[in-house]
Amino acid sequence: MGMRKLLLIISILFSTAMVAQSPMHKLIRKKAASGSYPDTVAKFFFTKSGSDVSGWVRMNGDPLTSVLTGTTNGITVSTVATGDSYWNDNGVTESSGYVAGSGANLMFPGMVNSGWYFHALGAPTAPNMSISGLNPSGTYEIYISSNREGASDNRLTKISVVDSVGTTARTSINSAPSSNASGADYNQSSSNGTVIWFTGRRPKSTGIIELIIERHNSSWTYGYINGLVIVRTS
């Protein structure tokens, strides 16, 4: 086989493989492989129970009664504070859950999507999750999975990012979808929740980005978060 023909075949195979991947998968693989930053990628998931997932920090417990933290690559995620003002339980005595059986949605594996933390009823009195240890001079992308395994009633979540850029809210996040949909900054998967992402985020001078997890509006009761991926891009 001639060298030109061999190179052509390799080029075709490579192009085909790349088309089969989502832009988000390509971005994270590129950033993770670059090794430019010690905090290139940090992955966390939130659950009442379940098993560990390789490469992910499992934050296990109930944010209603305990401040829960996890750390990897110098980045720490915290549930900030306890009680109904931050993690309202709607009278069920806990603000976490787990139902085995969810499937993957983009880079979030099934086990990550099977557990969740939630805030019920009105908005929390302050951001109820923080990401610290970030470089104040860095730029980050934040990917969040919101899924209520075992439900398909199209319940809606609202998630906001608070940083030096300002506050950016994402509404109508379908945490229990009965259909598939996607757009420039989300991927909704039937029975596997919705993944959203925020780009171009800049930490505050303290190296912190905050999140607000809540219900979409008064027509709904709960707002969910299952998994969180932080990617440094500059």
Condensed summary:
The chain has 234 residues and is mainly beta.
Features of the shown structure:
234 residues; mainly beta; Jelly Rolls; seven-stranded mixed beta sheet; six-stranded antiparallel beta sheet; 3 helices; 38% strand; disordered N terminus
Q: How many beta-strand elements?
A: 16
**What is the succession of H and E elements?**
HHEEEEEHEEEEEEEEEEE
Q: What is the level-2 CATH architecture name?
A: Sandwich
Give, in spatial order, the strands making up the sheet with the most strands: 2-1-16-8-13-12-11
Please identify the top-level CATH class. Answer: Mainly Beta
Overall structural class, as computed from helix and strand content, comes to mainly beta
What is the typical, i.e. mean, pLDDT? 89
Backbone shape: globular
Oligomer: single chain
Number of domains: 1
The name of the CATH topology is Jelly Rolls
- State the share of residues found in helices, binned by percent: 10-25%
How far is the N terminus from the C terminus?
Answer: 43 Å
Which radius of gyration do the C-alpha atoms yield? 18 Å
Main β-sheet description: 7 strands, mixed
**Content of β-strand:** 35-45%
Written account of the structure:
The strands form three sheets. Strands 2-1-16-8-13-12-11 form a seven-stranded mixed sheet. It has a six-stranded antiparallel sheet with strand order 3-4-7-14-9-10, with no helix packed on it. A three-stranded antiparallel sheet has the order 5-6-15. It has one domain (22-232): Jelly Rolls (Sandwich). The protein has helices spanning 3-19, 23-34, 110-114; strands at residues 41-47, 57-60, 69-72, 75-78, 96-98, 115-120, 129-132, 140-146, 156-163, 166-174, 181-183, 186-189, 193-201, 209-215, 222-225, 227-232. The chain is mostly beta strands and 234 residues long. The chain contains three helices and 16 strands.
